[in-house]
Amino acid sequence: MSRKIVLLPSLSRVQPGSKATLEIPTGPTYFSVLFTISAAAGLDVTDIGRISAIINGNVAQEYTNLQRLVDLNAYYDRDSDTIAATSITFALHFFRGELLSAQRMTYNGQPVVVDYRRMPRIGTQDVASFHIEMDI
Length: 136
Hints:
Radius of gyration: 18 Å
Strand content: 35-45%
Low-confidence stretches: none
Helix content: under 10%
Distance between the termini: 37 Å
Order of helices and strands: EEEEEHEEEEEE
Mean pLDDT: 82
Strand order of the largest sheet: 1-11-4-5
Structural class: mainly beta
Number of strands: 11
Largest sheet: 4 strands, antiparallel
């Protein structure tokens, strides 16, 4: 199965001191969401506060601020985030390669090792609502 790039709508309620929201269409399976934020007057990674991915009213992922997310992406060698004077590009990853785990099992009397991922992606087929919130 090949991956398909889905263009998402823009963030809503984008104002300093507010919580910007991205309503994500349900149905597809998401591996990551790529954000590009720009400002003519200058932008810093500290301008973005708490980031939360909320599914059916429950928090699926949450980061205290954008700097924490950028640091985790760099540590786990995920796609590189770019930070410039007037724009920031970063990704919120749902595919988490670092959570690869091996489990030893027995199949037909023979020992086998089964690899599995504890968080491969976010499926939204049976989800009522999915949105991402950011404190600005």
